[in-house]
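Minutes, project check-in

Agenda point 3 was the complex the collaborators sent over. CS summarized: two entities, 323 residues total, and the question is how they sit relative to each other. Sequences were read into the notes so everyone works from the same version.
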Amino acid sequence: MSVLLTDLFLTLLMVLALAAVRVRDLVGAVFLLSAYGLVMSMVWAGMGAVDVAFTEAMVGAGASTVFFLATLLRTVRTERARPPRGRIASLATALALGGLLVVAIHEFPAWGDPGSPASLHVSPRYLSEGYRETGAPNIVTAVLADYRGYDTLIETVVIFTAGLACWLLLERREP
Amino acid sequence: MIREHDSVIVRTGARMLVPPIQIFALYVVIHGHGSPGGGFQGGLILAASYILIGLTLGRQELRRRAREGVLLALACLGVLVFALTGVATLALGGALLDYTALPFPGGGTAARSLGILVIEIGVAIGVAGTLTLIFCRLAKAGEGEEAP
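CS then shared the predicted structure for the full assembly.
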């Protein structure tokens, strides 16, 4: 994906995030977040992280939207206006943290830099031996399910725990 | 409240969409080795097909097709498939989730490839069951209360 298109998408992300915070109608905010997830998945896809883009489109744009909407059925649809309190402190904190991130971003390695620490440790071995050792041409699957199977096991348990928590907390007898 | 949609076009469209979505979910799980996706994404798509049923055909129809007890059992089964694979590799003398220790024909690369498939199917079952269960519970929780 061209740099221009990525920049356009990233700008769109900021606009969508600000709009989602500003809008009073919570259903509107949910759909703005859904659009945010969709644009985010396009950014991932453009960077070549197709598996992440897939997951982002399913979770960020799909499942979480439905879950938010189902939750909104139980509560009010519009955000209650709060008296403006501590705005100066919030603004100062946001500006300070944002400024810190902007300063820190120059320390990041360039995108796709083969000399960056993340590309030097175990990645070369996964890339060169992954297919021969696991028989999986998709290296993401080989890493997730084989080399890093332990992490994926715990992730599955985390999702299971979330489901169990919902099942227990939202208990209600059939009418 | 989540109930059957009034429009026959929406209901029929959803009924027609559900089978292709489910076939695609299976494809994503089985082809996790070679194409983007895998157990997590495939399980999500499978859950999405049931969520679509719930949103368009109503919660009663969803409950008829997937009871909560079954969904909870599937969620547990998915995690169990994954965890027991790990226990089996340990019991057979390998490291945790070292699939070469499992008695698959071929051994080596073939065993690791099959091991990946087994745990991907486990993840898919677990994720599909869990997410549909969450949706069922959220939809049910809103029932009997007037949406403001």
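Noted in discussion: DSSP finds five helices and no strands in chain B.
Follow-up: revisit at the next meeting once the mutant set is ready.
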